[in-house]
Design a protein that fits this description.
about 250 residues; alpha+beta; Translation Initiation Factor IF3; Alpha-Beta Plaits; four-stranded antiparallel β-sheet
Length: about 250
């Protein structure tokens, strides 16, 4: 009786394994059990896999200035007082140029010793203190960039520091949609060509993934060259928004 049960259990397991094999599609490898039963292992990717690319050029509508002041004096109190006075003037110039308070954010503030190496004594001597205060100012009227830089430079005087200017698009959703349309169409065209060459009929998409690149400049922003002008000439150039999709048909 015990042997009969063992036989039945073995038969059920064999049928279950056979059912699993029948449900497996696209298998490429086989493994043989001691009983002689073959089991398919591994799988093969099915369908047509393609990548689509879309890109759109757009003019930036926002500029971000990183600017501030740096003051050095014999004592911390003197340096801090001079820096604070100059920074107040810089902030006033920004606001007068139309930059809202919410668009001005402190990025960096430091008080550092300034030292000099004494060759005779063979150690560093403190000769003063430097106070630095840097803000990021978002300019929503990009055509005012040059005049605002000039106003800041005048307000802060020799303490003024302008570290960088970057350009961006405040709401790039419409450009991303256009880039997405191009990327999906590009993927579809590639898949149709592959299906035609392979002599098969293209089915519906079964998988789609998207990746978006950060905007890049199709031509780098630059300070325009030429004769002196009332305002510092700034050229924002164009930005390129890129988007890629992977589609399986």
């Amino acid at each position: 009786m015990k042997g009969k049960y063992i036989f039945i259990i073995g038969l059920v397991l064999a049928l279950a394994l056979a059912g699993l094999i029948g449900c497996t599609s696209g298998s490429t490898d086989e493994s043989e059990l001691p009983s002689g039963l073959r089991i398919n292992i591994g799988s093969q990717q099915e369908g047509i896999w393609v990548n689509g690319h879309g890109e759109v050029n757009a003019a930036p509508d926002t500029a971000t200035l990183q600017l501030g002041i740096s003051a050095q004096r014999a004592s911390v109190a003197e340096a801090q007082a001079e820096a604070a006075t100059a920074m107040e003037k810089v902030m006033a110039a920004l606001q007068k140029g139309g930059v809202a308070s919410k668009d001005i954010q402190t990025q960096y503030f430091s008080i550092q010793q300034v030292t000099r190496w004494d060759q005779d004594k063979q150690y560093e001597i403190v000769i003063g203190y430097r106070v630095s205060n840097t803000v990021a100012a978002k300019l929503r009227e990009i055509d005012k960039s040059g005049s605002i830089i000039d106003a800041v430079a005048e307000a802060g005087g020799d303490l003024t520091r302008v570290d960088n200017i970057t350009f961006s698009i405040d709401d790039p959703s419409a450009y991303r949609k256009e880039a997405r349309d191009k990327a999906v169409a590009d993927a579809r065209n590639k898949a149709e060509q592959i299906a035609d060459l392979a002599g098969v009929k293209l089915g519906r998409p079964t998988y789609i993934s998207e990746s978006t690149s950060y905007p890049v400049y199709s031509q780098p922003p630059r300070v325009a060259e030429g004769a002196p002008a009332p305002a510092t000439p700034i050229s924002p150039g164009e930005m390129m928004i890129r988007l890629d999709v992977q589609v399986v048909y």
